[in-house]
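Good morning C.,

I know you're traveling, so I'll keep this short. The sequence:
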Amino acid sequence: MPISRDEFEKGRTRDTIKTRIEKLLQNGRAYTLSEIGSYIYERKLTQKDILIIQQALKELIEEGVIEAKEVETRFGKETYYCAKKFKHFPIF
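The tokens, ready to paste straight into the viewer:
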């Protein structure tokens, strides 16, 4: 199946785990790994699912697309993931 030039350049197709995570995080909210997993798989997560999501999150952090932060909740500390905010400067 042919892919677009953009997919070729990025080295991945549009419907990967990474792109689905990016799409979820575009709304400006932060999510835990289990919340991200529920969005992606729409079922109870297996250990394999968790490992795949962890790898995708690690790669997105390394690429500078998302950031992770440990947040104190009423149940203890949890890691949340959110899209990085970029400052946009006007082009003159």
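Safe travels,
E.
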